[in-house]
Structure formats: C-alpha cells, structure tokens
Amino acid sequence: MEDFDYLRDGDVYLDSACQSLRPRQVIDALNRYYTEHNSCGERVKYAWGRRTDELVEDTRTAVLKYLKLKSRDYFVSFTLNTTYGINLILSQFKPGIFKKVMTSEIEHNSPFLSTMTFAKRMNIPREIMRRERDGSIDIDAYDFKKALVVVNSASNIDGRKLINVKDLVKKVHKQGGIIIIDGAQALAHSSDILEKTEADAICSSAHKMYGPSLGVIIARHDLLDKLETSFIGGGMVDDVDADSYILSSESPNHRYTKFESGLQAWGEIIAFGEALKWLSSRTKSDKNNLERCSQKLFDFLKEQPRVKLINDIANPTISFYIDGLDSHMLGQALSNEGIMARTGYFCVHYYLDHVMHYPPLIRFSMGYHIRPADIDKTIKILGRILS
Length: 387
Prior knowledge:
Elements: E1 12-14, H1 24-36, H2 47-66, E2 74-79, H3 82-90, E3 100-104, H4 109-122, E4 126-129, E5 147-152, H5 165-174, E6 178-182, E7 201-205, E8 215-220, E9 237-240, E10 245-247, H6 266-280, H7 284-302, E11 307-309, E12 317-322, H8 327-336, E13 339-344, H9 349-355, E14 361-365, H10 372-386
Parallel strand pairs: 1-13, 3-4, 3-5, 5-6, 6-7
Antiparallel strand pairs: 2-8, 7-8, 9-10, 11-12, 12-14, 13-14
Helix pairs in contact: 1-6, 2-6, 3-4, 7-10
C-alpha cells in the first residue's frame, strides 16, 4: 500500500494492537507542523500560532464527527495515552459520589489497575464483571446503582467487542451510575459500536488509530460537575491571584482545558486530525483486504492441532499459544524472519494468567497496512516451525 511506502518487502508488522503503523499523510502532517508553523497553541498572536490553533480545533471537531457526537454534549481533550486519560479522570472524582467501582475480567491493566487504586482511595468495594465469549456483559446480572463502571469496548487479546455497550450505558445511567469506556482497541476498526454512545467519557489512544503517540478523552460537559481539579498548571486558568485562580474550563467553550495542563503536543494533535481523515476515507476494498487477511490467518491457525487459539472467530487481533513451544522463543524465531509480533500477557495479567491460567501467548494484530503477501509469508514460516 503506497501510504506505507516505507514498509520494506519482507517486513511483516503484526503488532497494530500495540501501535498501528502511520500512513505517510500523518507523518507529513507532523513534519509540516515542525517546518511550517512550529508554535505554542492558545498562547500567541502571530500567524504560526493562529495556524496551529486552527488545525488543533479542526482535530477536536473531527474526533466528535468520527463518533457522531455533538459538541453541545461532549468536549475533546488530549493527553498522553489511554492509561493517562483514565487515571486523570478517576483521580479527580469528588468523594462520596460512588458506592462501588466496577470493571470486567478481560480488561487491559489501564482500567484494571486504576479501578483497583480508586476503590482503595475511596474506601469502596470493587466488583469484577464476567465477560461472555462474544464480549458482552450480562447487564441483568449486575446492580449499577451509584457505581463507577470502567470497561473496554474491545479486547486487546482477541478483539471481542462489547456488543451491548449501548444497553450497558443506558442501564448504568438509569441506576444513577457513571460509565467510562476504554475505546483504545475499537476506534480504529470497530468505531461503529461507539458511535452515538452516550458514555460519560471515552478514553483512547491516537497511536492505535494510525496517529502519533497521543491520548484522547471525549467527555460529557456535565461530567465536570463531579470532578475536583487537582492536576493543574499552565493553560488551564484565565487568571491567578496570590491564593486563588479562575479555571478556563468554567467557560463552555474551554471545557477541554480541564484535562490539558501545560504545553500540549500540538504537532501530534494536528497529525491525529490527519489520521482521522485517513481512517474515514478507507474504502470497502481496504476493509475487505483486512477482513480477508484476518480470516486466512485465523483459518490456518485453527487447522493446526498444536495451536490453541484464544479467538472464537476471525479478527484483526488473534492470540494463541502452541503446545510444547515457548511463545517468547516463537516470537524471536519469527523476528529472525522479519515477522514482528507481540508475546506475553499483553497487560492483561489477571485474566490470562490468574483466571484462564494460560502460558504466555503470541498475538498477531493486523491493520490496513497488511498485504496478502504478509499473511502468506507468516503462514509459510509458521508451517515450517510447526512441522
């Protein structure tokens, strides 16, 4: 694919669930910021700064458009990554709002650990919900009264999606709870499940959406009423006296400053806007190619007697282990052939190690850069190892 013209023949990148490759358009956008209008956003009046402000605002608008959300209900802030965003919100909730905090068993450590520390700090119970094989949660089995719920919309193990996310959001709200969605694994290839979802906040990472290293928070305006600012600095205030200050986030047009302390990664934010344009322009052919490659690799693995698949169905993210073969050694052997894949527990230690008792796994995660030849090579090398 010409948008990834820097990818050499023979290099097979299968770690998109960690971070996707960046198309040339995104790299060019970042370079343009540094070479054409390198400037501090929201602080200067010269032309470079005005250009930066314009493009950053375009990215905020593009994020809401991508999820079909309205600016009258939501605002967009930029952070470091999904983990940072979730922790930033949880660390600032006022005490006494929640009776318990809830997460699910297949969570990345981002929600899993942050809910653990939140429960301890607030001295409230923490409940771990079961996820079905199709990724859903049996919402009738749980009480969400005055609960803080933090769950993923898609798993970084096998891509299983929270297919009843909208029903979950409705029930949590009906029972007086708050729900924060980890959208990191869904927004690149399964954004439709989060479109028009009325969650209180969605946290994600641009680097899993073909953008630069960057975090994004999409939050409801009324969520701020439940937060007490404790992480604060430049860029967040309109005025400061000896012992007081006025928060910029008190203005409806500057809610996003609640989570944006200090100088922001302006170039990365602008390049993320380019990534959203690129993602939105993916053709049916692009999507079909990713689907076919995922299915072909899944079918091959499913046919191998020694391969123990975690997936039930084909997905761009596929995890497995091989009986009698250490996954880390397999990862190294694949690397020697130019195939880049992730090994271990993928920051899902609780579920994979302590619930399912799996050995370390190997994960193949694909993106729009994938070529049929990449799958053919992977199957050929794996077939040789298995035989």
